[in-house]
Write a structure and sequence with these properties.
The complex is a heterodimer. Chain A has a single domain, classed as Folate-binding fold (2-Layer Sandwich), CATH 3.30.2270.10. In chain A, strand 4 and strand 5 form a beta hairpin. Chain A has 1 helix and 6 strands. Helix content of chain A is 9%, strand content 38%. Chain A starts with a strand and ends in a 7-residue tail after the last strand. In chain A, the strands form 2 sheets. A 4-stranded antiparallel sheet of chain A has the order 3-4-5-6, with no helix packed on it. A two-stranded antiparallel sheet of chain A has the order 1-2. By secondary structure, chain B is α/β, with parallel strands linked by helices. Chain B folds into 3 domains: 30 residues, no CATH class; 194 residues, FAD/NAD(P)-binding domain, CATH 3.50.50.60; 157 residues, 2-Layer Sandwich (D-Amino Acid Oxidase, Chain A, domain 2). Chain B is built from 12 helices and 18 strands. In chain B, the strands form 3 sheets. In chain B, strands 1, 2, 8, 9, 10, 11, 17 and 18 form an 8-stranded mixed sheet that branches. In chain B, helix 3 packs parallel to helix 8 and helix 4 crosses helix 11. In chain B, 50% of the residues are buried. At the A-B interface, strand 3, helix 1 and strand 4 of A face helix 9, strand 15 and helix 12 of B. Chain A: GO terms for molecular function: sarcosine oxidase activity. Chain A: One of its GO terms (biological process) is tetrahydrofolate metabolic process. Chain A: It comes from Allgaiera indica. Chain A: This is Sarcosine oxidase subunit delta.
Chain lengths: 88, 424
């Protein structure tokens, strides 16, 4: 599996650290209800098919990436830097 | 002669002998293949190990026999047929340890209970440690196991060497300091566990319905009424979702979002060898564990691939990592050829512990979140899920496995790795 980093190009999966679903981008306010924190930290759509998740280019440029992937085929459908421009 | 009588009876050595003498013409299918009825008292979604054992104990312990197990493929075709077959009770946290202790006791009587040879082999499990700190952690775990009433012996280096002389004790980076020996740990024939529970449930009157995919869960006024399937609608006042890696999709039919992310875990088996590895062994400095099957193949595995996946196959970096860890631990396995590798879909929770609970919908129950430790839990999971469905109360050894524990903060994080699904 290769992931095309918008800064570094197509790189081996081993250069990247997987954090989890894109839910991690939506951090609740500090005074949000416990249910909001539960949803943020624990609950997941967990789709079989297209999903978006966060990867960190640990052994590359150090960018956080939002990767659109197919969880059934492992196909990478798109990658963009968090807060950045789409490359695919 | 009364050979019909033989067929109606159980399996035994005498019957094998009698059938052998008569050309093995008297064997019949181990379970029926019924068409689904319009309604049942309870329906179990998922014909894997946990679903089948739940059905068995509902019928056996609670007298509920008007029930059906709905399986979208064939019985035992998911994780119960894809795991590395290890059975153990070496948990540390209260909430986990009494559950796995209960499960191991059920394993120890399972073959007699089911009249089925599940090839349960208590060959002993050894978790190796490689530093003083790790020794302290394993000593503490061993004490917790003994306090629970299970067995644990802390082996020093010489003790491990007597049992496992072929390990690389003086590996420059990960020298072996000792191991925690759990003599009652071991392995079982995974498929046979599913088949044994299936046959047992069928004999008690449970309908096992294969090629029957649930496509919807009927809920009205906060109460479950039944399910929609590819073989028609089925009414039931109690519905259990026991579908492991597919829990997210099935729960979504009831409008639920679960604390579960599905991940891929790979396993490997080599060509058959003469007996050389007598125990189950785990490496303490890389995620690697190994045992030898009765056919002779070395069965081993490692860690998750670490990203969410439903592919039932993994990627090469983890293959390489597992092989490297194995070679670091026991260089003698470098010669055998790997025959097969495969992957299973693991329902990973944020604390690494499972869920056996009611849901917010009356009559709808869930049993999931087995991470990659579900096989050894099959007997107790079914036992406790059946208890919950029949009585409405959590079983005393499964009280920690609540669905809402993440919201309330009552996590059961056995390894202390934090609330990220793939870190357990």
């Amino acid at each position: 599996m290769r992931i095309t980093c918008p800064h570094c190009g197509a790189r081996d999966r081993r250069e990247f650290y997987y954090l989890g679903a894109e839910d991690y981008l939506h951090r609740p306010a500090e005074d949000a209800a416990p249910a909001a924190w539960d949803a943020y930290l624990h609950l997941r759509d967990n789709p079989a098919g297209a999903t978006r998740d966060l990867w960190y280019h640990e052994q590359g440029c150090g960018a956080w990436l939002l990767v659109t992937r197919n969880t059934v085929t492992h196909e990478i459908l798109g990658v963009r830097a968090v807060d950045g421009e789409a490359t695919e | 002669m009364g050979f019909k009588h033989w067929n109606a009876g159980g399996y035994s050595g005498l019957r094998v002998l009698a059938e052998g003498l008569l050309g093995n013409k008297g064997w019949t299918p181990a379970w029926r293949d019924p068409a689904p009825k319009d309604s049942y008292d309870a329906v179990i979604i998922g014909g894997g190990g946990h679903g089948l054992s739940t059905a068995y104990y509902l019928a056996k312990n609670h007298g509920l026999t008007n029930i059906a197990v709905l399986e979208k493929g064939y019985l035992g075709g998911g994780n119960v047929g894809r795991n590395t077959t290890i059975v153990r009770a070496n948990y540390f946290l209260p909430g986990n340890s009494e559950f796995y202790s209960h499960s191991l006791k059920l394993w120890e009587g399972l073959e007699q209970e089911l009249n089925y040879n599940v090839m349960h082999s208590q060959r002993g499990l050894i978790n190796l440690f490689h530093s003083d700190g790790q020794r302290d952690a394993f000593a503490r775990r061993g004490n917790a196991m003994v306090n629970q009433g299970d067995d644990a012996v802390l082996l020093d280096r010489a003790g491990v060497r007597r049992m496992l002389p072929y390990l690389d004790f003086d590996n420059a980076r990960f020298p072996i300091y000792g191991g925690l020996y759990h003599a009652r740990g071991g392995t079982a024939r995974h498929d046979a566990v599913a088949w044994g529970y299936a046959r047992g449930a069928d004999r008690l009157g449970v309908d096992l319905i294969q090629n029957c995919e649930v496509t919807g869960i009927d809920v009205e006024g906060g109460r479950v009424l039944g399910v929609q399937t590819t073989r028609g609608a089925i009414k039931a006042r109690k519905v259990a979702m026991i579908v492991a890696g597919r829990s997210g999709q099935v729960a979504a039919m009831a409008g639920m979002r679960l604390p579960v992310e599905s991940h891929i875990l790979q396993a490997f088996v080599t060509e058959g060898l003469k007996p050389c590895i007598d125990h189950v062994i785990s490496f303490g400095m890389g995620h690697f564990y190994i045992s030898q099957s009765d056919k002779g193949g070395l069965v081993f595995g490692g860690d998750l691939d670490f990203y969410a996946s439903y592919a039932q196959r993994g990627n090469l970096p983890m293959v390489e990592h597992v092989m490297e860890a194995g070679m670091a631990l026991m260089p003698m396995i470098g010669r055998p050829k790997v025959l097969r590798s495969w992957g299973g879909i693991m329902d990973m929770t944020p604390d690494g512990s499972p869920i056996i609970d009611k849901t917010h919908i009356d009559g709808l129950f869930i049993d999931c979140g087995w991470n990659y430790g579900g096989f050894k839990a099959v007997p107790a999971s079914g036992w406790c899920m059946a208890h919950l469905m029949a009585t409405g109360e959590s079983h005393e050894v499964a009280r920690g496995f609540r669905l809402n524990r993440f919201e309330t903060g009552h996590l059961l994080d056995e390894e202390g790795t934090g609330s990220q699904h793939n870190l357990h």
